[in-house]
Design a protein that fits this description.
This protein is an all-alpha fold and 386 residues long. The protein is built from 17 helices and no strands. The termini are far apart.
């Protein structure tokens, strides 16, 4: 296949994902795994897992950065940019239209019945990806114990995700070092990872327009999922008096019920602050660091796998990343089916949608995840009428 055809394929795949990728980063990564590993064979499952682990170590929206990695694997550096832009574009466009309606009419459209059905549908998609990826990640009983410890810490403490991943990586790598007596020279190969951890300070100096600068700063230091964005924007915008708390909550809501990355919230906020150019500046600012970080990181991943010390570091990070995904799945399942846990109020509608989605995902494996998502939305609407 020619380079032009590969770029067109990358654009088509990630534009489609951008239109139907609901459910947050874990669901997005699961959908991507289905498209690029199972269906199209762009890479093997081990390399995909390595990319997930490495991506968790850098700032920015993890699922968006994974699209860039996948695009690079298929069509080089051009593919990296095409994949990222194609995935982001649908969410940005939809969010921009909603921002215009919000500014004009002061309210958001009623989409809750459809979103209600999408949330339980993505549980099956996430579960399927965790099962498939764990077959590669769990290479030894030691890694299984490490993953279990990370899962317990994620579920029962307020441990930061990046702390859990880095901690697991270092503990696993040092354990390997102690058992296999790796040469001290191997320790030097970990330096690129810490470079990536601190490189955001260089990017923070690049600024021109206030809105662009604000969102560039957030994009360069945002760790974990896009849902922690609310804390950053509250500090940057609400405290400064640029937005009210209600306006910010409405913006976050838009990011959650539109497909694609939650960070499309920035488009909504930018439009509120400064119209069309504000939306463009905010969007460019928050996503630009991700393109730069992935551009730096992507060539390092194969080198990490070749290094004995870093290979075990990466294995440990990978199993920790899966533990975090499993933690997200467990938390989401409880929140969706038992929203009022002290009262033990059981959401039978959500449970039915989740069960049907599990059947579609595990017993009818040729059914595209897009239909699972659309079916969940439709069922959510129908059951809401009862």
């Amino acid at each position: 296949m020619s380079k032009e055809n590969k770029l067109a394929e990358v654009a088509k795949v990630f534009f489609k994902l951008g239109c139907f990728a609901f459910g947050g980063p874990a669901a997005h990564i699961a959908m991507m795994e289905e498209e690029v590993v199972n269906k199209r064979k762009w890479m093997n499952r081990q390399h995909y897992l390595d990319l997930i682990g490495a991506t968790n170590l850098i700032p920015g929206p993890n699922s968006t950065e994974m699209t860039m990695h996948c695009g690079h694997e298929r069509a080089g550096y051009k593919g990296l940019f095409v994949a990222g832009i194609a995935f982001i574009f649908p969410a940005v466009l939809i969010t921009g239209v909603l921002a215009w309606l919000y500014v004009k009419y002061g309210t958001l459209p009623e989409v809750e019945p459809f979103i209600y059905g999408i949330k339980p549908a993505v549980l099956a998609i996430i579960a399927s990806a965790i099962i498939k990826l764990s077959k590669k990640a769990l290479k030894s009983w030691e890694l299984g114990i490490l993953g279990g410890l990370v899962l317990i810490l994620v579920l029962f403490t307020n441990l930061n995700e990046i702390t859990a991943l880095l901690g697991a990586g270092l503990i696993g790598a040092l354990f390997f070092y102690a058992r296999h007596n790796v040469s001290p020279k191997e320790l030097k190969s970990i330096v690129p990872i810490f470079f990536l951890q601190t490189s955001s300070s260089v990017i923070l100096k690049v600024t021109a327009v206030k809105v662009f600068w604000t969102f560039l700063k957030v994009g360069a230091v945002l760790y974990g999922s896009g849902y922690v964005l609310i804390a950053y924007l509250d500090a940057e915008l609400v405290t400064a008096g640029w937005l009210t708390k209600q306006q910010l909550l409405d913006a976050i809501a838009v990011g959650q019920f539109t497909p694609g990355p939650v960070l499309s919230t920035s488009t909504f906020v930018g439009y509120q602050l400064s119209g069309l150019w504000g939306a463009i500046a905010a969007t460019a600012g928050i996503f630009l660091p991700s393109f730069l970080f992935v551009l730096i990181l992507n060539p390092l991943v194969p080198r990490m796998r070749k290094s004995k010390f870093l290979s075990y570091f990466l294995d440990s990070v990978n199993v920790a990343a899966l533990a975090v995904m499993l933690g997200v799945l467990i938390t989401m399942t409880i929140e969706i089916t038992l929203p009022d846990l002290p009262e033990m109020h059981f959401e039978w509608r959500a449970a039915i949608i989740a069960l049907i989605s599990v059947i579609l995902t595990f017993w009818f494996k040729k059914v595209n995840v897009m239909w699972t998502i659309l079916g969940g939305a439709f069922l959510g609407y129908l059951l809401g009428l009862i």
